[in-house]
Fold:
Amino acid sequence: MSTQRRRQQTAVARRSVRGPEIAELRAFCAAVDLGTLGKAAVSLRISQPALSKRLRSLEAAAGAKLLDRSRRGVVPTAAGRRLYPEARRLLQQADVVEELLESAPREKAPIELAVSHTIAEFFLPPELVAYQADGRRPPVQLTIANSGSVRRMVGEGRSAIGIAAAGPQGGEDPVGELEELELLDDEVVVAVPQDHAWYRRKAIPRELFLATPMVMRDEDAHVRRCVEAELAKRGLTLAEPLIEAASTAVAKREALQRSAPVLLSALSLDEARDRLYRRPVTGLRFPRRFVVVCRSLSSLPRQDRDFVDFIRRRRQNSSRS
Structure:
């Protein structure tokens, strides 16, 4: 045997055999079952040329003709008859795998939620626990910022839903109108430590309140803007802050350490835990509301609307009880 002949035989022996594709086997079995290429193409919802291409590819992979074609239709060849039962078994297994994949739980897209610091710390935790209790609801991707930033994030599409304080936001809203849904009422209150002189008072005279430096949140915090806006309506102003705190926790700590009055959200105040005690100011109140904000409630995904309905319904139920 010549060297060239041996090389050709070696190349043939080393030729890799491509495995059949599921789509090709489906085309073959459909053609055998239905007897014509036209009916097979219709059953698979593909064009007849696409079906013929799959059959040619399968025959090329098999290295043999699998169907005899005539005007009356198609019938399997001897090679086709050997292949058919094995192809059928493989397709049945493929169907089982597809059913398992379709029924497997899929990861759900998270609900993109931006909330204010007060909501994140003093309202949202039990709501999220209740929402996730059955284990089937989508995860919540949470971003925490001040109320003005929450509104901007929703308006710019960086979060789908927001929970923010309504009312003065500090300047023009650059992102346009947002839809608002009522969630809960709150109030900014004065609280004092037990060793402060105001603790012994039933109410704080207005002029004394206005003249006293207090622990306050920073200028961007809605708690502070709410008080300043309400006073501005009456032509009144606060004294300069004793200290500006970057968070509610810092404000509480500074009030205790300095034995000073502090402006806080009523939602954040637990007198027994915080050792700070609420005292009303004569003739003044600073109410505010928290609302759910979104660009368009009707355009929210179903899971986002369900989440909004869930927290609003729970809040309404707790208000009645």
